[in-house]
Amino acid sequence: MRIFSTVLAILAGYFLSCLPAQAGTISEVSEAVCTEMKTRSVLKADSPVPCRRLRVVYFSYLGFDGKAHHDGEIVVLDAAADDVSSIFEELFRRRFPIGGARAMEHYDGDDTASMRDNNTSGFNHRALTGGGSLSVHAYGLAIDINPVQNPYIAFAGEGQAKVSPEAGSRYANRARLRPGKPERQGMAEDIVHVFAHHGFVIWGGDWDNPIDYQHFQISRKLAEQLAALPADKAREIFRLHVKQVRDCMRTASKKSSVQTASIACRQTQ
């Protein structure tokens, strides 16, 4: 009987481990997933953060089909995981639609493929689009949301613009309401203040060239600092950063709208 009970316990543990993680939870990256991330070029030997510092945030989201989905996942640095979880909880409450959210190993670390699939994503060891220094995505402290509705636009010359992904071209005009056309959803302008409230104060939609409507991040300086600190200290510093942003927004909102307050506090970054 004791052997039978032990076998049942082992089998129960195995089947539970095969179940998808519950939305609203935060998990460490398992050794198996860590290996897969390395195999698929998402995590590299010279990544600024090791696998043990990454967390998987699981969440529910409203799809563009109007249905609730409970399979959202995004990988971020441990210090910001709680706030990232809160961001997506808030988006779900606001019924802000999301096209999908899968970790970057599903795309072999290919940002172009992820954008084309309208995938919301976080950690990915890669350079800035167009080359150069590391993206803040490589620190797990940047998030791209709904790339089709919020495309990346680079200007090469007079009147020349490249839109990525190509399907995002119809969203280059950022007006939500246009005469005779249906209202457009999933645009980042609606949620900039939500990200700012949780410390992600830099929005690519504020940039001149490129304009990266899908992109939210913290400052590179802070990202480098958090990556270099022990996990508990990094979490403490990030919480202090969030508090400072919220204090700024609270003070500014006494004189203006929440959206205007968000703009004022983002300008300090």
TrEMBL record:
Domain of life, source organism: Bacteria
Domain Peptidase M15C stretches: 130-218
N-terminal signal peptide: 1-23
Repeat keyword on record: no
InterPro entries xref list: Peptidase_M15C, Zn_M74/Hedgehog-like
Keyword vocabulary terms for this entry: Signal
Claim: Signal is one of the keywords in the record: yes
Pfam family, one: Peptidase_M15_4
Protein name: M15 family metallopeptidase
Annotated organism of origin: Keguizhuia sedimenti
Taxonomic classification: Bacteria, Pseudomonadati, Pseudomonadota, Betaproteobacteria, Burkholderiales
